[in-house]
Amino acid sequence: MRTPRVLVCLTAALALAGCGAQVDEKTDDAKKAPASGHYPVTIENCGVKTVYDKAPRRVVTNDVGIAEIMFALGLEDHMAGYVAPDYKTSRKDDIPWRDGYDKVKRLSTKQINKEMVLDAKADLVFAGWNYGFGEGDGFTPATLRKLGIGSYVLTESCRSGSGKQRGVMPPLEALYTDLTTLGKIFDVEDRAAKLVAGFKKKVADAQAAIPADGKRPKVFLYDDGRDKPVTAGAYAGPHDIITKAGGDHVMSDLKDTWTTVGWETVVDRRPDVIVINNYGDVTAEEKRKFLLSYPPLADVPAVKNKRIFVLDYVDLVESPRNPDAIAALAGYLKGVGED
């Protein structure tokens, strides 16, 4: 899970080392040598180029959205397990990629660590900055490299080069980039291309139903927090989910992924709708009750009109559920715009 949330390895020192992968340090002549079959392949992930001589066979993922990226690509047979807590969900029987959860072993509901991946004999860890990777825990691509284990960093979490701020591209582009790059690593490029095309069509269909001359409701994403709300900036999944669903993301000026703001900023920007992230120890209903009863928000239109919409955590972080989240929110915002 994110702790608060994820992103770029900026130096070659953090590049992958395990699973037949190596930093791209070949000479120009070597790079021109003809390849045998699909491999070797060179990919770029969060600014680091890596050469894969073969597909990883024992991948360990951290967090539910990252696991579902692998499941969506049909890569269960390349996984040694996944780490993810028991997230709250509004879904019952329609959980996407249920077969992936049945096929792949859950290693833990706790924070991922070196012991877990070593016990799993992992050759690649797919996680992200603040989605598992973090200097504070000593669990980074660099430390894994020393153990002979490769890393792939969730693109949403790539660090921008400005301190530990995250985000190098629009959120949906990050999803499409990861699907395309992983397709290349695992030799399932056609499958990845089909997924991306289907997701783009789903988003386009949702946008086509938005009234061209309709109002764009102002939307605030509320993750959690009483003293200061945790919310989403321009590089977190909710930004594209909100804007492509026909909303005006009131925190789009925050050039980061997940971060905190002051309640006075929320009040000043007067959102028409608040989207709750169904995540953490506090339930979505408890969050809703807090928002509706918190005195400083009393005159905010979303609170006055009780326009609060709930999406699950996995809908909002980078995951293959993002397009469906756009369609769901677009339907809700259409009703708000018609009021």
TrEMBL record:
This is ABC transporter substrate-binding protein. It comes from the Bacteria. It holds the Pfam family Peripla_BP_2. The keyword Transport does not apply. Residues 1-17 form the signal peptide. InterPro entries: ABC_Transporter_SBP, ABC_transptr_periplasmic_BD. Residues 58-339 form the Fe/B12 periplasmic-binding domain. Keywords: Signal. The keyword Signal applies. Belongs to the bacterial solute-binding protein 8 family.
